[in-house]
Description:
By secondary structure, the chain is an alpha/beta fold. The chain contains seven helices and ten strands. The relative contact order is 0.21.
Amino acid sequence: MITLANVSKRYSPEPSASAALDCVDLTVERGEFVAIMGPSGSGKTTMLNIVGLIDTPSSGRYLFGGTDLSNRSVDQLAELRRRHVGFIFQSFHLVADLDVRANVELPLHYQGVPRAQWRTRVREVLELVGLDARSRDYPDELSGGEQQRVAIARALVNDPSLIVADEPTGSLDDRRDAEVLDMLSTLHREGATVLMVTHSEDRAARAERIVHLRHGRIVPAARI
Length: 224
């Protein structure tokens, strides 16, 4: 589903500047659950941003679903992102003055889905994350774990091909951490492709495969 071929990313034009990603090759199959690990500054978030179509490589090729995206415009990439990628971040990024249902509806609004289709889909994803009874509550009325589950529902509401999770449980206590990881594992078992950045070996162990980054390169685990 995802192929990075000799992908590099540089944020500075200076020849002496180091690359955030340096000649990375990576393939993630459809339905796979992959964890990305590495120390701070190793390129994890840069990789996630490229895979999630937020950023573009400085060089190399990125194939999504077999299609080379090298020549796609910013608007075309944004449209692909809206339709095919669901994001879960460490910070929940919920809109404080919108209730749970309205927060989950946001991607449908931006994607241009007819409003008549919203109610059924939003109810389905809120039932999936166990929050259908809280649809009229506001973010400040929810626990941290519940807020993250709302963020997961929002990521799933447009039925994405890929779920991208950047330290999705980093701000949660152990019990809420386990709840969110259980949810990601469930989504994976149901066929979702999941790419998750984490610093935790215990969290990474939930994945089928772990990719280790150091200084912008994929390295064997023993070198971390």
